[in-house]
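We treat protein structure as text, and this decision shapes the records that our systems exchange. This encoding replaces a full spatial description with a residue-level series of whole-number codes. Below, we set out a record of this kind in full and without editing:
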Amino acid sequence: MEKVARKDAEKEAPMLHLLGEVVRQELREFVVAAGMTALAVLLESERTEACGPRYVHQVGRVARRAGHAPGELVMGGRRVRVQRPRARSVDGREVELPSWRAFAVEDPLHERALTQMLVGVSTRKYRRSLESMPDGVPTRGTSKSAVSRRFVATTEAQMGTWLGRDLSEIDLAVLMLDGVHIDDHVLLVALGIDADGKKHVLGIREGATENATACTALLTELRERGLRTERTTLVVIDGSKALAKAVRDVFGSRALIQRCQVHKARNVLDQLPEEMRSSVREALREAYRSGDAVRAKRLLMNLARRLRDDHPGAAASLDEGLDETLTVMRLGLPRSLERVLSTTNAIENLIGSVRRLSNRVKRWRDARMIVRWTITAVTDASSRFRRIAGARTAMSKLVLALRTLDATNSAVESKTRVA
């Protein structure tokens, strides 16, 4: 009996699946049809409000019915053709119905195109990604060129707004800088962390290389948009000398530079034979996890001395900027915050979002297109930002340390001016 029941169930399964598909299809068509009917009733009621009831004499009538005309509304990521009830004023001008104006705007289409691009739908597959419409409902606006035009228009507007944002309200505590290579261009990205532990993408600058000129231009632009550079700020960079020079040129003595420990370890290990990397990696990890800047420096200097004879390149790489890899450790912060701010991992995650989105593009037309896509990627990524772990207590200690340094620097500057 069980075998017979199982066989009957197996026979019925495809039929039930087919029935489910039919029900879903009919339900969707019913909902769309009901919505179309409701829209027609709504528009007609608005026309009645403007023109008065049919076949009723009305003193002082300000508008009259003018039949119907083909029109288009935004629905389900496309434009749908429907009949639009028309009304004209007594002097012959068209009377716009409020609901028609609301449903006819292009904004939802632009937002839908942008969302589809962000989740990986190509312009060629845009139509396939939408819910199907019932037969007999004329639609348009789903072609590759139409979707591409909407995406470009949306990202162009977004780029103009985004690049001109006022930054004066951000209470900046930490600035992270890094670059991403796209095609033959480098996009420099600046990420800020405020006193409450919130992350902010501050700006982007396109350049041919990650040189000091491009970095200085980016930081100068941020300052002109209101970013405060007269206070001591922790600046975390990947180890690039060009970035370090640009930071000092703009922030001066107010820049507290932290070189990324991950980049430093990678640069050292890349210059060693494979059989040595494990032990050296462990020695670097021990130093950077010690929690004591004096002990960490002693361990790193001993390691550099051991490498100097047989591997001078690795030793030189370790020596270069060694003190700046321990900047955060000297501030006496909680271990969780020290770990976050000793590397550029926070901005590397943002750069990863840019790479994932840019990898979908087969051909870059120009640098402006690259900037548009980059801004689109970082704007989307920033919508999912979370505060720094333990920000409420840990960040207050960082801010206190930075303001203490401010007071010390101000005192030194005052004595220098008096002298």
